Amino acid sequence: MSQLYSRVALIGLGLIASSMALAIRRDGLAGEVVGTARSDETRRIAEEIGLCDRVVPTVAEAVAGADLVVLATPIGAMGAIAEEIAPHLAPGATVTDVGSVKRAVVEAVGPHIPAGVHFIPGHPLAGTEHSGPRSGFPELFDGRWCVLAPPEGTDPAAVDKLAALWRAMGSQVDLMDVARHDLVLAVTSHAPHLIAYTMVGVADDLRRVTDSEVVKYSAAGFRDFTRIAASDPTMWRDVFLTNKDATLEILGRFTEELFALQRAIRTGDGDHLHDYFTRTRAIRRGIIEAGQDTDAPDFGRAAARK
Ligand code: NAP
Fold first, then answer.
1. Which protein residues touch ligand 1 with a CB less than 6 Å away?
2. What rounded mean pLDDT belongs to the chain?
3. How much is the pTM?
C-alpha cells in the first residue's frame, strides 16, 4: 500500500488511535506517525511498546508539520485541544476526529480551525470495551464502516484522501451529514449502551439474585450486556452529554415499546409478543447478511478463542 500522508499526528493514544497507529505503520500509509496523550504514563507506555515513530509531550509539538491530525480523545476534550493546536497547524493540513458524536464535535472544534486547513469530522464504527494504548490492534477497522461528515464546501480532494486512508485501514466509508449520523448512532449504539448500563445496574441492585448466580448463569443473555457496560465511563459520559437530543428521542420510543411489551405480558397477549420477536429476528438476519456479525453460535466467541 502506498503512502497517503507524510506525517500523521494522533492526539490521544487510546483504543482507536493505537489501532490506527498499528494499521498505518503496518501498511506504510504515512511517512511518520507522531503521537501524544495527556498523561506521562500513557506516553511512556506508547514509547515502551513502540506504538508511534515519535511520542511527544504536547499537542502543539504533535501537530507541527503534520498533514493529517486526528483528534482521538474523549469528545469533551476536543474543543480545548482544537484551540490549543490551531496556531500550530500546517497550511493545507487536514484535521479529523474519531468521536462517536458529530454535531457537538463540529460545534466545539469547527470555530478553531484556521482558513486553509481542512476539517473533516469522522467516526469509525468499530470498537471494543477496552481502552488505553495497549488495547489497539491493526485489524480493528476491518470490514467496519467509517462515517465522514465533511461540512458543505469542503475540498473534495481532501475528503477523498482521508477516505482512502480509512479504506486502506480496512474500513468501508460512507459520507453523512452530522444530524443524520447522530440519530443513526443513537439507535444503533448510544441507546443500546444506556440500556446495557441500566440492565447491569439493575442486576447489581437485585440482591434477591445472588452475585454468584448472576455470574454463573450470565451466558443466558446478561453476559453480553456486561461486555457493553464495561466500556469506558468518560467516553460514554461524553456521548450522552453531547448526543442528548437524539438519544432522548430514541429512549422515548424505547420506553413506549417497553410499556407495550409489558402490557402484552400482563394481559397474556402471546400474538403481540410473537409478532414482535419475529420482526426483531429479521433485523438480526439482516445484520449477518450485511457481514456485520457472525451467525456462529455464541456470537463466534468459541471460534475467536481458537
Ligand atoms: P481511550 O482508550 O479511552 O483513550 C483516550 C485517550 O485520550 C487517552 O490516550 C487519553 O490520554 C487521551 N486524552 C484524554 N484527554 C486528553 C487531552 N486533554 N489531551 C490529550 N490527550 C487526551 O479512547 P478511545 O476508546 O480510543 O476513544 C477515543 C475517541 O474515539 C472518543 O471520542 C470516542 O467517542 C471515539 N470512539 C470510541 C470507540 C470505542 O469503542 N472505544 C469507537 C468509536 C469511536 P491519557 O491516557 O493520558 O488520559
1. 11-17, 37-39, 42, 72-75, 77, 81, 98-100, 123-124, 127, 131-132, 232, 235
2. 93
3. 0.92
